[in-house]
Amino acid sequence: MKKSVLVIFWYLLSLLSVKAQDSTIIDNDITQNYLRSYCSQSLGIELTPKCNLSLYDTLTNWIGTPYRFAGNSTKGIDCSGFVNTIYDHVFGLKIGARNSSEIYKIMQKLDVDELQEGDLVFFRIRKGGISHVGLYLGNNKFAHSSTSSGVIISDLNEGYYKRYFAGAGRLKEGKFDNISAVKNEN
User: Is residue 110 within 8 Å of residue 119, measured between CB atoms?
Assistant: First the structure.
């Protein structure tokens, strides 16, 4: 008799455990839908179910941060500091390069039609080499720290960015031209 009661008890306990896992999955879906909706509204862009919610959640905290040359905090940040911070926090990668020109050198170059969420876009705003970098989000949108408005989301189709667009790239792990990009152990 004791054995059958114990078996029934374990069976009921396992059912409750499965039910709890199901509700966790449902709670997770609800949380992700809420976060996706919140980020879409906050950032003014439509997010897909397959988007990296961690990226967009992090971006909501940076939007409006003022531009500061060589800045690296929410008190002020420049374009390369912004890209480095996002890569470290969201993707667990330390790019290591401290300016847009250095970052461009370590990228695997891409055509615009190959861009994916998380790739980088580069601009030649000043005469000469690469002088600005942003983080591609999809649908021609990218996040960056602009000198005039701080951290914002812009569109590659805007005349200004079309005029100065220099190329796009994806971080190529393990091939870094004297600059160490190391996976963060977090």
Answer: yes
9 Cβ partners below 8 Å, 6+ apart? none
Left (φ > 0), alpha (ψ -120 to 50) or beta: where does 15 sit? Answer: alpha
Assign a CATH topology to domain 53-183.
endopeptidase fold (from Nostoc punctiforme) (3.90.1720)
For the segment 49-69, the average pLDDT, to the nearest whole number, is 94
DSSP string over 34-46: HHHHHHHHHHTSP
Question: What is the predicted pLDDT for the residue at 37?
Answer: 85
pLDDT more than 90, % of the chain: 59
pLDDT tens profile 109-150: 999 999 999 999 999 998 889 999 999 999 999 999 999 999
* Nearest to 115, CA basis, from 58, 57, 156, 81: 156
Cα–Cα distance measured from residue 74 to residue 52, given in angstroms and rounded to the nearest whole number: 22
pLDDT: is 97 or 22 the higher one? 97
d(CA 9, CA 98): 60
With CA atoms as reference, report the closest residue to 158 among 134, 145, 140: 140
Supply the residues annotated as catalytic.
79, 132, 144
Determine phi and psi for 119, rounding to 5 degrees: -70, 170
User: Do strands 182-183 and 93-94 pair parallel, antiparallel, or not at all (unpaired)?
Assistant: antiparallel
pLDDT of residue 11: 54
